[in-house]
Amino acid sequence: MKVILREARIDDIAAIQHVRNAVRENRLSDPSRVTDQDVRTYLFERGRGWVASVDNEVVGFAIGDLQDANIWALLVLPEAERHGIGRALHDGMVEWMFDQGLDTIWLSTDPGTRAENFYREAGWNATFLTANGEMRFELTGLDFRRSSRSEAREKLGSTQAQ
Length: 162
Description:
Layout: E1 3-7, H1 13-22, H2 36-46, E2 47-54, E3 57-65, E4 70-76, H3 85-99, E5 104-109, H4 114-121, E6 125-129, E7 135-140, H5 141-147, H6 151-156
Antiparallel strand pairs: 1-2, 2-3, 3-4, 5-7, 6-7
């Protein structure tokens, strides 16, 4: 499987929405809660995003929000899971966020999910349960850089578009 990672563009929004609504975990109960304008705002005003594609089809994306210092979304199509795509998107996004000067970033996800395990394995620290029952995680730039957790990104590096 040849995977290409690149910065998200405006014409990726429909594919990003498709991925968002096709996932097995962390599904939106009401897909209309995240509009195309929301995606556009997070991609180009609040932060930056990346997509992973296979055969010119977007199979995953990641969006980092600099204003709130958090991971707004990191999702991969079910059929593209377990190929290192999520980890490559994660590592590139997180590295970029810390390069922008953030010291600590956070995210929240449902407890007891594969996503929770993914973030724990990537070096995130669980801090507390939020009021809506999600697990909040934090990661410092120092911990991220110390962990040298970029194996997936290096593995996909030969196919990565800059």
